What we know:
The structure holds 2 protein chains of 2 kinds.
Chain A: H1 2-17, H2 20-35, H3 48-81, H4 84-89, H5 95-138, H6 148-175, H7 179-204, H8 212-224, H9 234-239, H10 248-272
Helix pairs in contact in A: 1-5, 2-3, 2-5, 3-5, 3-6, 3-7, 5-6, 5-10, 6-7, 6-10, 7-8
Chain B: E1 7-18, E2 23-35, E3 40-44, H1 51-58, E4 66-71, H2 79-82, E5 85-88, H3 100-110, H4 118-128, H5 144-156, E6 162-166, H6 174-189, E7 193-197, H7 201-207, E8 210-215, E9 218-224, H8 225-229, H9 244-256, H10 271-278
Parallel strand pairs in B: 3-7, 3-8, 5-6, 6-7
Antiparallel strand pairs in B: 1-2, 1-4, 8-9
Helix pairs in contact in B: 3-4, 3-5, 4-5
Amino acid sequence: MFSRIFWIARVTFLEALRQRFLAFLLLLAAAFILGSVPLRSIDFGHGELKFLADLGFGALFLFGSILAVVLPSQLLYGEIDNRTALTLLAKPVGRGEFLLGKFFGSWAVLGVFTFALTGLIGIILLVREPDVVARAIALQVVPPEVSVVGLFEHALLQWLRLGIIVSLALLVGSLAQTFLYTVVVGSMAVLASQLVWIAQDTLANPEAVLSTVMRGALWLTTRVFPNLQGYNIGEALVLGQSTVVPGTVGSLCLSAAVYLVLILFLACTAFRRREI
Amino acid sequence: MTDKPAISVQDLTKDFRVGLRGVKLRAVDHLTLSIPRGQVYGLLGPNGCGKSTTLKIVLGLVPATSGSFTLLGHDSASPEARARIGFLPEAPYFHRFLTGRELVRYCARLSGVAADRVDAATDEALELASMTEAGNRRVGTYSKGMLQRIGLAQAVVHDPELIVLDEPTAGVDPVGSAAIGKMIQAMRQRGKTIVLCSHLLGQVEQVCDRIAVMDRGRLVLEGHIDEVLAQRGVHQISVEGLTPAARQAAEEALSRHGAHVLKVDHPRQTLEDLFRQLVTGSRD
Lengths: 276, 284
């Protein structure tokens, strides 16, 4: 089973690397990140490194999310529309294995995307760090520090977050009949997951006046959609601007693993019933 | 186990729901069919008659609405059955960036060929499909005939017992089509069961042992090719050097025995045979 998943993932990865869409988004995100360097003086009073990190992480998440929705949908529908899926699924390949192969292939591409862009952000931050530190010392304020370990941890968390988005897109793709529907509904699911913290905060607020129906709807939202905003702790990890509670990274990794297993299980179950 | 048919279909029905109102469209209508082992079996019929849907159901790619079916005596969803079949879908598309050899290796891996056998199995399949030389070219550069041949190679790389070919010669020129016909014959000689779904009736007639004809989802004819095509009340005699006098004498002799000559003409070869005599090879 693992061998078949590996081979499908490998071919999916190679196919995805040849997609112009990937190259386009990678170049766009890189241009966005590099474009922040000459604009660093407009830091809105938050400090140069924070400005560069904010823009970099924002670009990584924005373009990564688009890629995480579109790429697996494109690869899944490409195989179904072109009948390659017929050839593969007539072999002793389970539908679940096929879908997991698509997932791991797409996720591996997003790994390249995430770590390449994080590397670029890291280079920019590390190149600018000595100047910023010198200025801080001259002004007798606490100098900021770029944490390479924090950068790696942030990249790992973003990769996991994008993995959850890939699995959501494949779940929608397993149920939907068209590529466009998958992309639209997948994007809405990502948006809902990104905003689910609002529902959590509202439910946790004892002063919030909510009807039973609204409370029920919010409760359901917080249970159905993963809280993707929770993975947004890059600033704290990389620049140490705020305190990260020990064990947060591990807890987020565990939570992502649970979501991945659950969503992929649902996607595989739905895909088994699908007519190819 | 070997006495069981390669494919057995009992009272199979498949309905599709189409449009927003979910109007029912019956693609296969109470089909019962048994495909024996070791033969080349032709499944014929016009477009939309349910041939491909039947094959997809049997291969476990589409669920049936009702009815039962087995593949080599097993449930078609079982890995045991799937590992023993090879399938070439109609108008196959393969990953363009892979070379033919990489594609066949990939399919060998997915079909459960042991790691130490993959290279040998790939070479054998490429050779059978006459794709050894083109095996190192990217699939994206292949002609239609080559795509079908590499499709055939991926279908047989794991040495399956049953090979299902859906329109293997669609869009292929007569020379390429004849080459695919030869591959089918070669596989039959190796004892394989081949199910051939095709519109090229001439080729089906040449290579198939048995045929089934479907129309509007129903089976309208099934039997051995010679039995279903033979005109029992009419005989054909080929004569060389027939002079007008000899012809008259023969007609009189036949007439004395109550037989009548219906037609005397020169035998014709098929246009396909003539084409293949004139054109010795494709540009593949």
